[in-house]
Protein 1
Amino acid sequence: MSYILKKILEYSEEAYGDIVEKFISEVRRKSCFEHLVSTIISQNTNWKNVRRAIENLRKILGTINPYTISSASLNDLEKALKPAGLYKVKSKWLKEVAYIIIRDFNGCLDRLKYLPVDKAREVLLKMPGVGFKTADIILCFCFSKPVLPIDTHIKRVSRRIGLTSSSSYDIIRRELEKHIDPKEVLKAHLLLILFGRNICRARNPLCKICPVNNVCPSSFLRGNDFR
Ligand code: SF4
């Protein structure tokens, strides 16, 4: 594993290990469909707004599953999703995705668990509102596949520490996966997000207290300027 990445993961485990463990046990309790719904809603918004939208959905649907979403009115879904923005298009996607899961998977995506990773990703990518990140979150969170979903924080950290110079989602994912134990991808995904949010921030990264500031090629201690 890359020395810098190893140091970052060790630091993050120490700093955020408890939060991550708690989050992982929540992940395990949620259904695959709920992950899919949350991830579609999370596009272009923050998790606070996603939580509000999910609470609204629970209020009107009771349980969130393909059948309740499919039979809900578009108007009700739009009202529930309003706090998360792009609510008209996201409501439409949810209804279409629910319909496909009922029609093609008998209401449950578990069948994908038995497909090879690339094939399962291909199936997910055909669904409306599902891009690479959403598909990979489902593969990693729900089916424990050795896939590391890349979000904006992970992309930034990987580029800054010199692990990749690419902007391509898939190239960054493959590069990072070479360095991570396939059984630890979910944990590494969460630790790197927290490191990016708290230390290697988009603006004003905390290079001064960063555990890799003596080796990171982007450290502002080396004269780089993030303003
Ligand atoms: S030294 Fe600065 S740029 Fe490099 S990883 Fe740490 S916070 Fe990010």
Note: The pocket of iron/sulfur cluster is lined by residues 160-161, 199-200, 205-207, 210, 212-213, 216, 218-219 (CB under 6 Å).
Protein 2
Amino acid sequence: MIKLGDKEVSNIGLGTYGMGGKTLPDYKNDSGEIEAIKYAIKNNINLIDTAEYYSGGHSEELIGKAIKDFNREDIFIISKVWPTHLHYDDVIKSAKASLKRLDTDYIDLYLIHWPNPKIPVKETLDAMDELMKNGLIKNIGVSNFDIGTLKEAMDNLKNGEIIANEVEYNLENYYIEDDLMPFCESKHIKIIGYSPLNHGKINNKIDNISKSLGMTKIQCELAYLKKKSIPIPKASKIAHINDIVTSLNIDLDVNEYNKIREIIRK
Ligand SMILES: NC(=O)c1ccc[n+]([C@@H]2O[C@H](COP(=O)([O-])OP(=O)(O)OC[C@H]3O[C@@H](n4cnc5c(N)ncnc54)[C@H](OP(=O)(O)O)[C@@H]3O)[C@@H](O)[C@H]2O)c1
């Protein structure tokens, strides 16, 4: 477990893009998706990532249903406001609509999904500050921000801190390790790594090392990524979730970590 805001969260979360549809709601697998989210929570994955954009809001509805059997305080929900909704009133409206779909009183971490250069980030952050004051969100963060846009956001936040930046990070796209990651580390901003499994395209470079470590390739990937980020793989299949759950307790030592780092950079 690691600390995020005021809560202890699992060092791997659950992504939900694609559950309940892609950009539009698709209700046909609802019961299976709800069971998958519940299964992940029961097996100690308590951080769940969603967004108003995902399946036109239906991903949030599925999460709202899945968390009903659990203590809300034990779960950490991330949601995001879409870049066309970053004017002050729109942010408030989006957050309230997300809360309604999630059927909960607060979002643990609310992110600006993508920067929008046409809307001053200060306006968006002022609205997020207001949401925080009213207890509707507990923490503020960003997603897909580079060092420049992140610095601008940090300079424009009146109260509190940007606690996380959610960006793509996997064994094919690891370039943040060279610049954004050290910058975030120096500012105590957590990296939440999206598409950690490169959309399910398994990396063959780690074939031998994962075997020699006695892990599946997915476990090896996640063990590597979670050293310096919180990966949020999306999985609907129980067998896939089991792989992820096993990864929660794998801790690579420095030599193993460096070896994998070397292999993926070849
Ligand atoms: N902030 C952003 O802009 C942004 C952008 C993209 C994604 N995200 C977030 O990041 C999450 C994850 O990223 P992603 O959905 O793009 O892709 P991903 O997590 O890299 O890959 C998901 C795919 O991997 C499969 N998978 C999961 N566990 C597996 C296992 N053990 N063995 C084999 N395959 C496995 C899943 O299959 P099944 O589903 O069939 O189990 C799914 O097809 C998203 O769901 C979303 O929450 C955020």
Note: The chain has one domain: 2-201+229-250.
Protein 3
Amino acid sequence: MQLLLSRYYLIPILLVIGVLYLTTYLLARKSIIRISVHRKIWNLLLLITSAACCLLGLLLVLAMDYGIRIRLPFDMTFWHVEAGIAMGMIAAFHICWHWRYLKVIFQYKRRY
Ligand code: HEM
């Protein structure tokens, strides 16, 4: 229960994203949507969550270190962290897709 009542919605976000990912993955496996559509959806969500997390993070730095406060009608730290959690989970799926590509790069580096 403690895990669900934390300040940030870590577990609920991970669960919702996990279920949604599984849904679009299964739709693609059953050829209801194309695999390219499944990937487009998650690439777009990765872009949106990264942009939100990074922009809000940069606004927080500007406010904290430079006193430049841009007022937005919501709690910037809260949404920065929520977007960061979502981005982290989607980035993990993204890394899994490109795992072979990354493995080749690291193997190449180790040899030389
Ligand atoms: C461009 C990338 C990022 C920038 C520039 C950035 C910047 C910041 C800044 C300025 C703060 C406030 C620090 C403070 O209160 O002392 C902060 C807090 C935080 N950030 Fe980020 N951040 C980035 C990415 C992320 C990501 C990917 C996550 C993953 C979840 C994350 C999670 C957090 C958390 C948990 C806090 C603490 C919030 C709190 O004090 O309650 N950040 N970040």
Note: The chain has one domain: 10-111.
